[in-house]
Amino acid sequence: MLSYPLLDLRVSTPLLELRAATDELLDQLAPVVHAGKMNADPSPYDDPISFHEDDPDLRVAKWLRSMWRARGNVDADRWRLNFVVVVNGEPVGMQDVIGVSFATFGTVTSFSWLSADHRGRGLGKEMRQAILHLAFEGLGAKEASSDAFVDNLGSNAISRALGYEPDGFDWATRRGEPARLNRWRLSRKTWEERRRTDIDLHNVDACQALLPLS
Question: Which residues, by range, are in coiled-coil regions (predicted)?
Answer without folding.
Answer: none
